[in-house]
Amino acid sequence: MPEQAPPPLPDALAQVDLVPLLAALPDPVLLLGGEAAWLNAAALERLGELPAPGAWQALFPPDTAPLLARAVQRAAAGETVRESVLLPGSQAPTLATLTPAGPGRVLLHLRDTRHPLEVAEELMDGLGLGMLVQAKGGGVLAANAAGQDLLGLSLAQMTGQAPADTRWHLIHPDGQPFPQETLPTALALQTGEAVRDVLLGVVVPGAGEADETRWLKVTALPRRAPGTTRPKQVTTVFADVTGERRLRQQMQASEERYRSLVEATSQIVWVTSAGGELLGEQPTWAAFTGQTEAEYRGSGWVEAVHPDDRAGALAAWQQAVQSRIPYQTEYRLRRADGVYVPMQARGVAVVNADGSVREWVGVNEDLSAVKAAEDHLRALNATLEERVADRTRELADLTRFSTLLLTAAGEGIFGLDASGRTTFANPAAARLLGHSVERLIGSVQHALIHHHHADGREYALADCPVHQTLQDGQPRRCEADVFWHAQGHPVPVAYVVSPTHGPDGRVTGAVVMFQDVTERVRAQTALEQAMANLERSNRELEQFAYVASHDLQEPLRTVGSYAELLARRYRGQLDPRADQYLDFMQDAVERMRGLIQDLLGFARVGRFGEPQPVPLEGVLRQAAQNVQGALQASGGTLTWDTPQTVWGHPGLLVQVFTNLIGNGLKFCREGVPPRVAVTACVEGQQVHLGVRDNGIGIAAEYHERVFAIFQRLNRREAYPGNGMGLAICRKIVEQHGGTLSLTSTPGEGTTFHLTLPLLPPGRSTP
């Protein structure tokens, strides 16, 4: 019967391309293998370019790189590892997940987020601006640290969870109580319009009987849920203007002092006849103007008035005398030193019992100090108004920024109070969960969206990471969980829970930022399936090589036996060419038998039992015995310094070192005795070994080719062999979680570099 063809080779490896899957992930991903490393686009953007091929540890901070290096070794040994690390330029922890990705390769996934609400709160607190979030009924839902400090109340006192001093109250600038219904927050909720720049006083009870009054400039901004017309909440932002108010009061007191001083020292008192003529001595007038009695008598006083003001001053005086109405006017009066001083002149008629005018009594008041005080006050008011306008603009910009930040964020964000009730939620949270913002606010978060696991099991409140953060105040990150949609189906999410604290350090609530990771879960599932297919394909390939090599031996033994019989029976009876053909046939059978044995050895790698502690000293002694014949035949020398103990399979490691040492003895230079030296040093959790010889060397373009199966660089007549030895060595080393490479200079020698794992923690040497 004709010989049947072997079954076709599985081609799963060619059908699975992991690079597009990894490149499409939004999170940073690194594929590590030996001295090579590959970064997807997100990793290049977050970490930067590799400084050198394989130098991936240089991308991470000094404290993070060793931690990841140890995790890579564990993952290369087949373990899935998760570590919390810090990335460059970040203060928040990042979750690093490392998974095996085939022989000698590890997949490193980084999950990095940023908390936008923390930035807004830091800005508000940094500017010293208070902020309250109140419900429609007036109850306080949230307050930042600056707001609690300005009001002198903790959040627990504002919400009624802790008692507050009953003497705490609000007042108008005139000191009257501020009714609750006229507060800016109440007006904003009633009208739906913003109420801005309202001045109110907060009377904070002092330690003794003296209370402290803080003056606040308050702006109340109503918050409407999408699709509604009436506000459901109000955000109140306020700034401390106690200093500005105190300054204004000081300016008013200064003005009053100026007026008192003028009244006490700068008034000119004068008396006239019923007809309005100055009579007798006028000491204060004479002292100020320097006029003599003769000069100011009658209407001579007008000569002391500024020429431009005389007509007006005289007309006003004549009208008052004629109509007997009080006299009041302003003009500039010449002082004795010749300087004109602004004056206000006022006079009233003194009447007799019969109603007739007896005399006029009046005063001139120096307005210089008053006008200077008024100018000073106007300047201070202008400065104060400018400062208030600047602070108002800052407050408005910050309010707009906070609103835009929460509204524009693609991640869902909601806040909780200490009892687990939702105090605020952004539109993204409502969209991702299918609830309205009104439905989310005020509801118990766990009962509404976190009540069951994805498989339907009830989610106990004590096991909920969000609830645990409310209890112990520790931030948490969860990469795999579900929230429940309003339509009743689970939404795969990853979220970060950050606690909020009051001035006394107690936990007042938490802020949760979450993402819908449905696409990421789908990509992860596809990646895991691809990895499973890859592992299955490798197993099938090994099984195929083993079976095929084993089945080839039977017909080969038959051919070899008959060739040997022909040679014994007919050698010398045929012509010389027939004897040569028989030699060729027997030689081919021997070479084929060697190839099959090497192929079987290659397929058997990985079929051995559990690893164990292996002293390298014993391995090298056994390898030295195996190459003893080659050492004696070549006159070569072998030395080693390997005191370490590694984790592996003794027989396989003896095979590796026998092959590498044997290569150094076989590929020697003509006329130069071969020398082979084996050295070892510890590098982290691995042992780095070097097998150095002084042979013919290998050109740079063949450094990788020599590790492929059936690859030879020299004629078989000069250097016998099948080209399988180095391929088997590399496969054995990689099965141990290590690497095998070489450096070489043609004509000088070659050094093989291999790494092997040290004992795992907790293991002891035999």
From TrEMBL:
InterPro entries (alphabetical): HATPase_C_sf (IPR036890), HATPase_dom (IPR003594), His_kinase_dom (IPR005467), HisK_dim/P_dom (IPR003661), HisK_dim/P_sf (IPR036097), PAC (IPR001610), PAS (IPR000014), PAS-assoc_C (IPR000700)
Annotated PAS domain residues: 116-190, 254-324, 397-473
An example Gene Ontology molecular-function term: phosphorelay sensor kinase activity
Annotated EC: 2.7.13.3
Domain PAC: 327-379, 476-529
Catalytic activity: ATP + protein L-histidine = ADP + protein N-phospho-L-histidine
GO biological process: regulation of DNA-templated transcription
Keyword Phosphoprotein: yes
SMART domains from the UniProt entry: HATPase_c (SM00387), HisKA (SM00388), PAC (SM00086), PAS (SM00091)
Domain Histidine kinase, residue spans: 547-760
Keywords: Kinase, Phosphoprotein, Transferase
Domain of life of the source: Bacteria
Protein's name according to its UniProt entry: histidine kinase
